[in-house]
Amino acid sequence: MKDFENVIEYRFKNKKLLDEALTHSSYANEHRDKGVKCNERLEFLGDAVLSIVVADYIFENCPELPEGELTKLRSVLVCEKALYKFGKMINLGSYLKLSKGERNGGGADRPSIVSDAFEAVIAAIYLDGGIEPARKHILRFVTPEIKSNQKKPFKDYKTTLQEIVQKNPGERIEYHLVSESGPDHDKHFVFEVHLNSNVIGKGGGRSKKEAEQNAAREALELMGY
């Protein structure tokens, strides 16, 4: 645990919290007679702490993004894929307490186990030292990821879809407004994209352009692009 504390750059006052955060349910079940606790409850709390820290950070530091884009960015940063990546960066799997069967079966490198443990460690830091150490720990991983996402060029799904369809002469793409709701300051639009007379995608957004782009994106996904 001391080695892991060096890796995460945080010293626990209550070492039992860290021990629990690193204990998978398979190990706890193997040692049930000793009253060993697994990290599932900490994972639950860590998920909430992670979400609020990420939401707060991108709200303050990405003022140009509308609500829909903030939601997408947050989901990218807190999903299993991202947390597994963060866990791999600190070699988290090697520090986990797993049953012999789980470890032999590759559990130390299983995305669900590593990502859950990453959330549990967040909760352990939060309970041991409060929100600021937890925030510092989370942003160490999240901030570079946000900058990486911001560098990615805007994807013009409408243009991409149009270019694909134009390869087949005679086929026509049209966008149709399906619904419009909400007050003037917070509108929500839903568009369908039609290939000839067939609906091939549907998307919503806070502007007509955003809704059309999301409809085109769904069409591309359904087409396998």
Folded structure, characterized:
With 225 residues, this protein is mainly alpha-helical. It is built from 11 helices and 3 strands; from the N terminus they run H-H-H-H-H-H-H-H-H-H-E-E-E-H. A 3-stranded antiparallel beta sheet has the order 1-2-3, with helices on one face. A hairpin with a 6-residue loop joins strand 1 (173-181) and strand 2 (188-195).
Give me the secondary-structure topology:
Elements: H1 2-8, H2 15-21, H3 25-30, H4 40-61, H5 67-78, H6 80-89, H7 100-104, H8 111-129, H9 131-151, H10 157-165, E1 173-181, E2 188-195, E3 198-205, H11 208-222
Antiparallel strand pairs: 1-2, 2-3
Brief digest:
The protein is mainly alpha-helical and 225 residues long.
Q: Which oligomeric form is depicted?
A: single chain
Quick one: overall form?
elongated
The total of beta strands comes to 3
Question: Strands of the biggest beta sheet: in what spatial order?
Answer: 1-2-3
Defining traits:
225 residues; mainly alpha; 3-stranded antiparallel β-sheet; 11 helices; 3 strands
